[in-house]
C-alpha cells in the first residue's frame, strides 16, 4: 500500500511536470524579442536614414545659444532672460545636448559601420566613417579633448579616457582616407553587385542617392575644414594631406552639391529646423519661434551692405526687418511679434512659411566648401585663386538661399571698397573671406563660424566682421545683459555634468576648464 | 440608506421565534477583545452532550433553561453560563496568555505550521489590527505594525501609491518588494490594492528569504501571506459596514509672505512689481490696489489688494472624500463579499472608484477536498494627466505669485479673467484650466481565480494541486481638449498666447496581463519515537504574459471627438508583448525532536526563461540554478526542566536560519540590445531605427541572496510580556543592475551583472499584552524597532561607484544608496568659499556624497485600549537616519520666488552664511563681503537653484499614523426584534496621518514621498506629487 501510494505520487508529479510545461528545453526558448529589432536582426541599411536625419537635426537645432553669441539671433522681449547664457557664466549643465546628441548619433554610425563591414557593404561603411569624422570634428571644436579612441565601446570600456584634440583630428584624416578608398572600390563595381552588396544604397543614402564620388568630395571638404582650422598649428604636415586630397582627383563639394537630406518632410513630419523654430508636427507654433528672433547686430550689417540675403535669413515681423540687442532685459517694445523671425525663406525655401516644413535639411553646404577653399588658397594651403573662389562662394551663398548670381554680383559691386565684401579693398583678404563666411553661414553652420571667430584674430579685436565699413562699426555682438561683466565670447563649452557624474576620474584629468581661457588646441593666438 | 432600511426590515420579518423546553441555542465564543475564538468546546454540565464551535466561534447546542454550559478553549479560562430563556448566548472568554506555543502560522504554500517550529522570523497581524483605522488599502493598515516592514506612502491622491520593503533592499536596482500570497496563491504585489481589507482573516509576514525558500526568486524579498475569511456552517452570517473618510491638506511647503509678482530689481536693488509675472520677485506687499494681468479688450483691469494670500495655495486643494461600503455573506463553506469604494482626491476633479466581488467555496468529501476562489475587481478612475512639468498642476500653482487669489479663477470657461485669454499669468496656464483640459480616464478589470485540490492518500500523506490564474485588462484614454487663444490675446503680446494654442489630442492605451500558476506538491508526515518527520516535494510552473498597445494622435485639430479616427497626419502606434516562464522543483525536509527542537532543510532548482539567450539553443546550465537552505529552532523552556515549570519565563525560543536564494532581476528579452523606431520614421517606405541606448549582456547569472539570521523569542508572566529580537545579514551577490553610463560609451544606460552588497539589521518587538488589566479595562502596548544598514562591497570591475538614477549612487564602502549632489565649493572645514570681491559662492561641477537615501531607524508604537465595548487604538512611527532631496519642488519654488528660502535677507545683499574668502594666503571667515547678486538675481538663478545640496534635508519624521476609537453596541442594547437579527454593531471614528513632526531643515514635503514606487532611487520627491494630507472619518459596521 505504501509503495503504491508513493508510486502514485511520483506519477502525479511527473505527469504534472510533463503536462504543464512539456518539460522540453524548447519550451524555454521564448526569449527572442518580439517587439523591436535587436543586434542580431538590425541591418546597416535600416540605421543609415535615421542617423542622417539625426545629424541634420543636431546641425540645425542644437546651437540656439551660439546663434545668440555670434550676433545672428537674440532672445525676444517676450521671454525672461537666460542669465547664464547671456552673461556667458555657463555651467556644466549648459547646452549638454551638444555632447549627448553628437555621441549618441555617432554611436549609431559606428554600429552601422560595423554591420556594413561585416556584410561587405563598403558604401555604407564609408559613409559611417565620414559621418563619424564629421561629428567628432565638431566635438573637438567645441570641447577640445574628448573621449575618442576608447569611446563608443560599451562595456569594453565603460569609462573612456579623454584623447588630445590633435590626436583625434589626425585620426579623422585617416578615417576619411579609408572611407574614400571604400567609396572608390564601390564605384568600380557593376550596378548589380553594388545593389547586392549594399542593400537599398540608392534610396537609403538620403544625401547623395548612392553617388560615391560626391561622398569622396564631402570627405575632402571635411578634411579641408580641418586643415583650415589647423592653420596655426605649427608642426602639422599640410602638404601630405593636401596631396592625398588631390590624388583623389575629384576635389571638393561644388555648386549644388550640398550635404543635405529630405526623406520626405511633411507637415506632420517636418524639417528639424522648421519643427524647432517654427511649428511642430502638430502645426502649433513652438516656444522657440517666440524666443529666438533676429539680433540687431546682424540685421544692421545686412542692411548697411544692402544685402538681399537679409530677407532670406529672416522673415520680417510686424514692424519690418527688425532685431533686438542680445541680452536686453524684456521690454514691451521688443515682444516677439515686432521682431524678425529667424526662419527665413532662404533657410526654409518654399512658397511661403507654411510650406517650408518640407524644406531640405542641411548638414554641410556647398557654400562653406567654397569659403574653405578660398581661405585655404589665400593661406597657401591649397593652390587656387582666392579672390575667384571667394566670389564663387558669395554667388553660391546667394543661389543656395534662393537668390541669383546676378544678385550676388550686384551686391559685390555695390560694396566696392568695403573690406567686408571687397577682397581687394583696403583691409581685405582674409578678413573679407571670414566676414563673408559669417554673412553666408548665418544659422547654417554656427559652430564653424564660432571656430573662425576663435582662430582668426583680426587686429587683436574680437570682431566677427572685419574692417570698419564706411564708418559702420557696432563692435562685437557682446551681450548687453545688465549682469554681464564679460566683454568676450566664450571659446568653448564646459564638459557636461554627466561626465562628472559617470566618468568622473577621466574628466577630472582635464582639470577645470574655463570657458574664456581653456582654448581648443588649434586656437593659437 | 433607504435600501439598507428595507433590507433590515426584510431580515426582521424573516426571523423566526421558536421556544421549546429543550431548544436550540446558538451562540458565539469570542475573546474579550471581540475577536472570534474558533473551535471552543461547549458542554452541558453533568450531561455528556458536547459540541464544538465552528471556526468563527459559532456553536449550536440543545439545552433547556437552567442547564449550565461549560465553555472551554485552549489558552482561555473556562467559563460557565446558565441557560435562561434566551435563544442565543454569546460567550466571552479571557485569554490565559500562554498562547505562543500554539500559534499557528500560515507559511509558504499555504502550509499551516506551529510558530514554535519555525527557525526564521515571522509576524502575524490579525484582522482587527489591520482594519482598526478602516483603511481602504491593506498596505496602509500594515504600516507601523511589524518590525522590518517598511511601508512608504509614496504619494497621496486617489491611488495612494505605496512602496513596501521587508528588511531593506536585496537588489540595487531591481525589484525589492515582497511577494503576495493570497490563500496560497502567489500574485503580483500590485494586487494588494484590490483586496478588500475586511475579507482578511489574518496576514502573516515572512520576513526573510529563508522563510520563503520554497518560493525561490519570488520570495526573495519576503512575503505577505494573506488568508481570507472562510464561511462557517449553519446560520448565514451577514455583515455590513460603511466608512466615510475625509482627506485634507496636512501641511504646505514653507512660503514667503512678503513679496509679490515680478522678475527684476530696480537700481536700488528692490524688486519691481510686474502684473503679468509667474515669478514672485516683485516689491514688498503694501496693501495697495494693484492690477494683475493685462487689460481686457474693453480696457477694464483686474485689481487686487497687494497682500500675501498663502491660504489660497492651501485652498486650491480639495477635501478628498472616500466612501467605502462592504457587505459579506458567509455560511458553511461558502463566503461571498462585495465592496464598493469611491474616492475623490485632494487634486480637484480626480476620482477613483473600485468595486470588488469575491467568492470562496469549498467542499470536503472524505479524503478529498476542493476549494474554489473567484474574485473580480473593477476600477475606474478619472484623473489629471500632467503630461509634462508645464502641464502639471503643482508647477502651475507654484508659479502663481503670493498675491494671487487663485481659487477665484476656477470658472475659466465663462469668466474672462480666468480664461487663458484673460488669466493674469503671461507664461503659464491657470491650474484650473490644466485640470480640465488634460484628463485621463481609465478602467482596470482584475479577475482572479484559483482552484485547490487536496487528497489525503494516507493519514501521513497528502497531495495538493493548485491552479491559479489572474488576468488584468486595463485601458486608459488620455485626452487633451483644444483651446485657441483669441486674436486679441495674441496681438496683445501675451506670451502664452504666442505658442499656447492647444490642439485636441488623444492617447489610447490597452494593457493585458495574465499570470498562470500551477503547483503540485506532496507532504509526508511521520512520527518515529520522539522524532517527527515532515517532507514536502513539489514542482511549480508560472507563466506571465502581457500585451500593451497604444494608439495616439497629438493633433485632432479642434475636434471634440477624441478618437484617432479624426486625426491629422499619422497616428502614433505602439505594441509590445512579453512572456516569461519559470519552472521550479523544490523540497523541504523538517525534523522535530521531542517537541523542543526543530530543524528544516530546503532545496530548489529553478529554470527561468529570461536567462535564455535567443541566439543559442536552450542550455539548462545557463537558465537553471540550484540553491539550498537550513534552519533550526529550539524551545529552551521545554528543554530545561527548571524552566518548564517557571512562572516567570513561560516561553523561550532561540532560532537560526541560513539560506541562499536565486533571483532573476531581469525583464524579458534583456539579452540583446534593441533598436527603436526613430522619430517620424517611416517616411513612406523609408525605414529608420536607432539604438535605444540601453546596453545589455548576452548572458546573466542569477543574483543570489545569502540570508543568515538568528532570533530569540521570550515570553514572561504567562506571556503577558513578549519579546522578540532578530539579527540578520543578507549578502547579495551578482546583482543585475541598471546603471547610468557616460554617453561617450554609446550607451547612457547599461544593465550589468556585477555588484555585491551586504544588508544587515536588527529587529526588536516588545509586546505588553496586556500592559494593564483591571476589570473590564485592558491596555495593550507594542513597540517595534528596526535598525537597517547596508554596505556596497563590490561593483563591476574598475568602477567604485555607480549611478542608479534620481541622484542615488552605489559607492563601494557606503550604504546602498547615498545621495550624490552638486554643492557649493567649500574649504576643508566645509565652509562655503565666496569671491573676495563679489561675495558670491560658486557651484562645484563635481558632485559630493551626502547621506543615505533610505531610513536607518524605524520605530513603531502601537497602543490598544479596550474597555467594555470601547476600543481605542493608536499607532505612531518614526523613521530616521536618512536624507531626502526635494530638488524638483524646491528649485521650482525658488525659481518662482514663493519659497521661504527665496525671501531671505529681505531679498537684499547678504553675507553668505558660514562662508570664507581667500585673502591671498588662506581662507578667512567672511563677515562683511556682501553678495553682489541678490533678490531675483540670486535666488531664482542657477547659483542657487543649480546647487542641489540646497534642497537636501533630513528625512526623519514622527507620524501619528493611526488613531481610532470604536464602540461595539452589545446585542442586549438593541431592543426587541432588532436584537434578534442584529448580532452586533460597531461604530467608530478614526484618523490617519493626523500629525507629522518634521525637522526644520525640511521645508518642502512629506519625507515618504517618492517619484516612483518601483524605482530604487528613493528619497526623492517631485513636482508631480501632491501635497501631504491627513485623513479622518467614521465607520459603522453591523453583523446580522
Strand content of chain A: under 5%
How many helices of chain A? The count is 22
What is the C-alpha radius of gyration of chain B, as a whole number of Å?
32 Å
Alpha-beta classification of chain B? mainly beta
Straight-line distance between termini of chain B: 17 Å
The proportion of residues in beta strands of chain B is over 45%
- Overall pLDDT metric of chain A: 90
Give a quick set of tags describing it.
A: 525 residues; mainly alpha; Serine Threonine Protein Phosphatase 5, Tetratricopeptide repeat; 2 domains; two-stranded antiparallel sheet; B: 1040 residues; mainly beta; 22-stranded antiparallel barrel; five-stranded mixed beta sheet; 47% strand; disordered N terminus
Describe this entry's structure for a reader.
The complex is a heterodimer of chains A (525) and B (1040). Chain A is mainly α. Chain A folds into two domains: 1-65 and 90-253 and 494-525, Alpha Horseshoe (Serine Threonine Protein Phosphatase 5, Tetratricopeptide repeat); 293-341 and 366-479, Serine Threonine Protein Phosphatase 5, Tetratricopeptide repeat. Chain A has helices spanning 2-21, 44-61, 64-69, 83-86, 96-119, 122-143, 165-187, 191-197, 201-204, 212-229, 238-248, 272-277, 287-291, 296-304, 310-313, 366-379, 386-400, 405-414, 430-440, 446-455, 497-502, 504-508, and strands spanning 73-75, 259-261, 292-294, 361-364. The longest helix of chain A has 24 residues, at 96-119. Chain A is globular and about 80 Å long. With 1040 residues, chain B is mainly β. Chain B has a 22-stranded antiparallel beta barrel. Chains A and B meet through α1, α2, α5, α13 and α21 of A and β25, α8, β26, β27 and β28 of B.
